[in-house]
What does this fold into?
Amino acid sequence: PPPPPPPPPFKRLLGCHNGKRDVRSLAVIDWWDGPSPFSQMQSTLPTGLLHPLTITPSAHHTFCTSGPLILSPAKTTALPNPGDVIPVTTGNAKIILANDGGTIRAFHNVCRHRGAQLVSEPCTRRRTILCPYHRWGYALDGRLMGTPSFDADEDGKTIPEKYRKQLSTSHVKDFDKKKMGLLPVRMETALGLIFVNVSGDAPPLETWLGGLLDTLGPHRPSLDSDEIVATEFGKDYEIRANWKVLMENFLEYYHLPAVHPALCNVSGVDEHRREQGTGMYCCFATDPLTAGGTAIDPGRLPVFSAIEGTSHATTAYHCAIFPNVFFSVYPDHFYRVIVDPISPTTSIERATLFTTKAGVSAETSKAVLNEIFHFWDNVNTEDINICEKVQKGVETRAYPGGRFSFRFEEPVHRFQNMVAQMMMGGEGKYVMPKGDQ
It folds into this structure.
């Protein structure tokens, strides 16, 4: 019989440059148009993308400015009252979040006069943001309100009369307060979380999140309300690994039996399934959860009211929003981690445990929440230990890159395509991955 026709040319995630796989191979990426591309995938991203000698600060800046970033504490309930102001940092972006009469706004945390950082600690009941350097004052909508003795207007009268003449700068010409307000940062909210886009050119947040909004749709009445609150339990981890190693580790459950045997008692490998639509995210579910005698077994805290009595009350969703956040939504709590790249080989993870107001106020809640957080802290520490070993391994120049497992690692492949297209830039920078086939 004639030989079978060759398979269609599958999408290569990476190509070659002068016979060697390296960062420049990203320029020859092609996108798959046929069925089941992942089953034919050969390799992971080139190790150069994880190596300190080939990743520059500008590359990290690309990821930290181009896509929507979730900010810590990243919950709209972190600013519940008008006048609440908090400073937040993610990557190299230092940002102010302010509740302006019920509207949350975001600005760069820098004075327009001489560049001083404006806000260092959370504060409440503020009507203005006052610079500690020269006392320039800004309204919570960003308008520049006060410039003591700078433009010789009424503000100059706040300076004691005996100093007013010496400090007068009435000679300053062409100064317009309306053009000197705080520098705004694009901000949107979804799932009760605050997102910013520093570059300002990302697609709308609804487009970015895409199918994730449908997947978590049943949870949204709870997530989008003040029912869900941050607990007192959280922790920052400094990790000797590239941020992409940490994100990719979350995106596959192949390592669960070897690294997280206790987690398998409640979130078994065989109960996992992918839940991915179009959008810049990856997601899989555990359905159903198992009561395996762990701290995170379902039923220990009040269930989110929006899913009570539904199949979602026994299902967990594990989600990663590109580029820098992942979280697991359980029926009664969710554990969220924000990944901040510090250098090509160092990252900070900022973990926070959330639950319902009823879960916080229950008589035994603190003890239960402590147990839940300790469980997640142990899981995350197990991940950190293995990720630091991965970082050491991929820095080996002889290592050419690895192979994917179709059953377990498709979300990693999806994530790596996002990394590749972002590195290439241009028109393909914001091509939304399609959903599962």
Q: What stands out?
A: The first strand starts at residue 69 and ends at 70.
